[in-house]
Each structure stands twice: as C-alpha cells, then as structure tokens.
Amino acid sequence: MNRVKLDYSKVLPFVGEKEISARREKASQALKGLENGTCKGSEFLGWLDLPARITSEELDRIEACAARLRAETDVVVIVGIGGSYLGAKAVIESMAGSFDAFSGTKVVFAGHNVSEDYLYELQEFLKDKKFGICVISKSGTTTEPAVAFRLLKEQLIGQEGVQVSRQRIVAITDERKGALRALADKEGYQTFVIPDNVGGRYSVLTPVGLLPVAIAGHDIRALVKGAADMRTYGKENGAELSATYAAVRNALYEKGYTIEITVNFNPKLHYVAEWWKQLYGESEGKEHKGIFPASVDFTTDLHSMGQYIQEGRRDLFETVLSVEKTKHQLLVPCDAHDLDKLNYLAGKRIDEVNKMAELGTQLAHVDGGVPNIRVVIPELTEYYLGQLFYFYELACGISGGILGVNTFDQPGVEAYKNNMFMLLGKPGYGK
Ligand SMILES: O=P(O)(O)OC[C@H]1O[C@H](O)[C@H](O)[C@@H](O)[C@@H]1O
Q1: Ligand 1, CB within 6 Å, residue ranges
Q2: ipTM field
C-alpha cells in the first residue's frame, strides 16, 4: 500500500533525536490511553475504529440519499459550522475542479457565518433553482446553522410547498437529543445519525462528512478505505506515523516553538488546513496551553507572510503538505522573443517550478530558524485524504495526551455564545 509519509529531518537541527524519543515514549503512553479507553474524555473515542466499523449498507444508504438529492435538485445547500462543515468542505475543495463553481456546482455552504449579505445573496442565487438542504448539527442547537436553516426552509416551502420541501431536506444530528432531532422527527425528514461517542471535529467519516461529499459526486468508499487502511497500518506498528508527528511537534513546543503553520503549495488543500486548525485548536488549546495552529497557502502567501516567517519572531515551525503527483500536466511554453526571460523554464513542468519553490522555501525557512516537517501525500485523491484525516486524528489524540489536556472537549467555545445570547436577549441569559 502506498501511503502518506512523514519527513522530520529538517527538524533535527532544532531538536535532537534524543528529545524526540523522550516524547515518543510519552506518545506510546498516550496511545495506550486511547486504545484502552483510560485517557481523559474517553467517552468520545468512537472515531478510533470508525473507519472499520462503517458498513457497506450504511454507505449504500448515504449514496442512495445523495443520488436522490442529485437527481431531484440543481443544488444542495449544506448547512453547518465547525466540525459539521469543515471535513466535507475540505474533501470537496480538494477533489473538485478549481472552476467548478462557474460551471454549475452541486453543493454550496451556509450556516458557517451569520453574515446578512451572505445569506441574502444565497437566497437570491437559489430563487430560480430547484434546491435541497442538508442540515448538519450534532447538538442541534448551534445558532449559526439554525438561523440559516430557518431562512432556507422558509424559502424552500415558499418555492416548492410543504410536501416537496420535506423530501428535499435531510438532517444529520443526534439520535435522540436536540432541537434539530425534534424538528426532523416532527416534519418526517430523512435523517442520519452522528454517533454520541464521536465529537464534531472528529466526525468527517460519519454521515456529517460523507453525505455532502457524496452529494458533490466524490467517492466516499475510497475516503473510508483510506482511513481504514491507515488504522490497520497504525495497528501493525504502534501508530508510527501519528505518534512520531505528535512527538516531534511536542518536542518543538517544549523548546518554545509554540506556533505550527500548516503550509500547502496547492490551493485545493486550503480547507484541509482549516479542518486541521479546528481539530488541533479545539483539542489542544486549553488550560492556557497548546500549540497555536495557523496556515498559509504558498506560493501565494510567500508574497505576504513569507517575510514574517523568514525573519519574524522565532517561535514558529512549519508542516508542509506536499503532494507528490499532480492530476494534470502542463509545460512552460517557449517564446521566440523571450522578453520575460522565462525561456530557461521552457519545456519544464509547472509542477517542477512549484516543487522547486517548495524545496527552496523549505531550505530558506530552515536556514532562517524555522523547523520544518513534511507530510507527503502521494496524490490528491479521496483515498489519500482518508489516510491523511486518520493520521491527523490519531496524532491529535496522542498529542493532547502528551500535553495532558482533555483532547475531546471544548469548554472555551461557550464564552462568546453566552455573551451573544445575553446581548440578543435570549430568555434565561441575564445581564
Ligand atoms: O454540530 P454542532 O453541534 O452544530 O456544532 C458545531 C461546532 O460548534 C461548536 O461551537 C463547537 O465548538 C464545535 O466543536 C462544533 O463542531
């Protein structure tokens, strides 16, 4: 099996193998805590064996629902935020053509902000379209998706009537609890369940990620297979890949490298980094501890953030998502006049230019004092994305264990919500 690989050789000038292997021992302990369910937050370990537990029948049901929505609609609005949004968005952006949005896209997103202009413009866009809604909320009570869903449901009923709109709405939520569950049961929407023991940011391989990805026309079986293969591979070797990444980043953290920048050289990976930021930020950022997860898109951001990374405060390290093989091939053309002085590149692949930018940047940043990890992805396919997700999820569980926090809760997210509810006059929220 070809697979995602890790290269931390460009970290070694900053932390030695000895320091890393000390963290590697802690990583093994943390892994044990996950495997035998004795870690903090152990009620949320359902993701560990999720890829192997998903049955072909469940995938059939998801694919059938996606096929029905694809046939009955021009576009489906995926309504959700945080873990109920980012996994699907990451896969769809990675797999879709860069200009699909201009040639008739199958999915659009809402409920991940409360921008009045965004929602107005979405409603205008949907006015002359046959649309469906896939509303996703584990708790079923999150304000942003609830507001968007209320608007869109009203619009759908107005355009299609009550009966048709019930067919066009699918809800993904808790099996029993929450306002969305109550509404879905009352209206008779088709529903899918988010298991109790899988937290939002770990839910990409549940219907939360799989249904939107299937609606967008991508291969969810390959995605699940990639994750399952990574799980099997990890079981055979003590989760080598994830444990090493967790150990290396913690060794760096303890030496004062408190910010990790995930870097891509392919804009399709932008939302993979956004997904990663939620996974690591919500999991580790607590008790006034944790690596701050950031991200950049190169080479674009080399022309904005590159200066800071090269010469700013030395508390950064980078993790580059490096894709080995492109989907397409394109050569730099030769020009008879060569006024732009680019003929030295004529006949070379665009990807070679990109790869040399990647290598040149890595060397420059390491020289400038920025440790560099490389995560190598053989190709941008659903299969390797599945591997990558599982690699990161397991590493996050291990890393949180090394740090000593409860990786699976997010108490800090409530503070802004309470203030917002109080300011908006929600009953039960005093001054
Ligand atoms: O799926 P939901 O219950 O609507 O939650 C959506 C998101 O919002 C919350 O505030 C949490 O911080 C996230 O972990 C979660 O993924």
Answers
A1: 81-84, 137-139, 142, 145, 200-201, 282, 410, 413
A2: 0.98
